[in-house]
Amino acid sequence: MLKRRLKNCKSKEEVNNVMHNEINMIRKEDPDRDMKLKAVLKAEKEFKKSGDFRRLPDEKKRNPGN
Description:
Layout: H1 2-7, H2 12-24, H3 33-49, H4 51-55
C-alpha cells in the first residue's frame, strides 16, 4: 500500500510528506517497530532509486488562486 501511495505522489515534497506520516504512524510501543521502520525505509529507498521518483518535480505546483 505504501508503494502505491508513493507512485501516486505528484512531487518529491509529497513523497517526503507521505514518508514522514508513515513513520509517525508506527507507535513507539509497537514490539515490531524496528521491523516496520526497516520495511518503510526500504520501500522509500527503492522508490527513490526509481525513474518515477527522478521524474517528479521538487514541489507540487500551487494554484495561484489558493
